């Protein structure tokens, strides 16, 4: 398939122009953050596909909301006979990912702009593997069943869908915990959370049920964790990821009314200070759920 064939066709789930991602994806700082986060998380997850034994040698692979393309680019490099396509709503992120593919000389990967809350412009049974990581920042609960129904249509018999989502994690910093709590509450107010009370991100308990409800078989789970306490090898890179994310989330917190700009700024500064303290302890969790197309 070509990038031209992968243009968004429109649909009735979310208006095509609506952007629900809680960060402005066009910000250069978000692009840099996502690239760094991809390396951090893929390594902590144990690689590109730690749960799956093997892929068909000429596998067709789709990565949904791929960001700058780190996972898809690495898949194309590791599986030279595979054909990989990544789709993302942000045209500038897609342009960046395509430039990365060209500069690395990878001809088996391409990226296209597409809204994954709309019908996806690929033929039935096109893919052996569909991967999606960290969609909770823009998906509304009602978007998930539609997307997974589309994935059922797009997967070949026996094909695999693989979803990875996280919760915020736990730390010993009161300001960081308060910031996480505001983010959860903001997502709840924005109608983008499965959490009953807005106290957590809410997506992880839903991954396996959503896959089963969509008709996937042999649904399995694997948890992952990254320790980023002060003094650990992952502290600085995770701290950088979180403080940039917190900064980029300020407009979302103010827009949803969970805090004023005057309240958010000192809380942010306090969190940044506490995350650098020598007695800061932190762990971040995620869950991968995967299932098979009958
Ligand atoms: C947290 S990033 C995840 C990036 C990548 N999956 C990863 O794990 O490194 C979320 C991505 O979703 C994209 N996005 C937001 N809304 C979208 C939509 N409706 N359809 C497709 N992509 C979307 C954003 O542009 C952003 O790149």
TrEMBL record:
GO molecular function, one term: methyltransferase activity
InterPro entries reported in the protein's UniProt record: Methyltransf_25 (IPR041698), SAM-dependent_MTases_sf (IPR029063)
Domain Methyltransferase: 61-159
Pfam families for the chain: Methyltransf_25 (PF13649)
Protein name as catalogued: Methyltransferase domain-containing protein
Originating species: Thermogemmatispora tikiterensis
């Amino acid at each position: 398939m070509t990038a031209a064939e992968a243009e968004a066709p429109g649909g009735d789930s979310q208006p095509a122009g609506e952007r629900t991602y809680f960060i402005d994806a066009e910000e250069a700082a978000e692009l840099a953050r996502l690239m760094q986060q991809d390396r951090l998380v893929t390594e902590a997850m144990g690689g590109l596909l730690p749960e799956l034994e093997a892929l068909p040698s000429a596998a067709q692979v789709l990565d949904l909301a791929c960001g700058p393309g780190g996972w898809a680019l690495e898949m194309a490099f590791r599986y030279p006979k595979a054909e990989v396509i990544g789709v993302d709503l942000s045209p500038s992120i897609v342009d960046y990912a395509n430039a990365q593919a060209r500069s690395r000389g990878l001809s088996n990967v391409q990226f296209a702009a597409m809204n994954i809350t709309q019908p996806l412009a690929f033929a039935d049974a096109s893919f052996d593997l569909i991967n999606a990581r960290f969609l909770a920042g823009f998906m509304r609960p009602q978007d998930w069943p539609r997307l997974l129904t589309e994935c059922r249509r797009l997967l070949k018999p026996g094909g695999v869908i693989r979803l990875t989502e996280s919760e915020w994690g736990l730390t010993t910093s009161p300001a960081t915990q308060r910031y996480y709590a505001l983010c959860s509450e903001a997502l709840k107010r924005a109608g983008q959370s499965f959490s009953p009370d807005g106290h957590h991100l809410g997506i992880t308990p839903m991954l396996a049920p959503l896959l089963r409800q969509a008709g996937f078989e042999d649904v399995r789970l694997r948890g992952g964790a990254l320790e980023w306490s002060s003094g650990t090898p992952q502290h600085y890179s995770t701290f950088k990821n979180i403080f940039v994310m917190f900064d980029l989330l300020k407009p979302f917190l103010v827009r949803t009314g969970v805090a004023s700009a005057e309240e958010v700024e000192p809380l942010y500064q306090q969190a940044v200070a506490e995350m650098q303290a020598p007695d800061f302890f932190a762990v971040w969790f995620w869950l991968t759920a995967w299932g098979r197309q009958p």
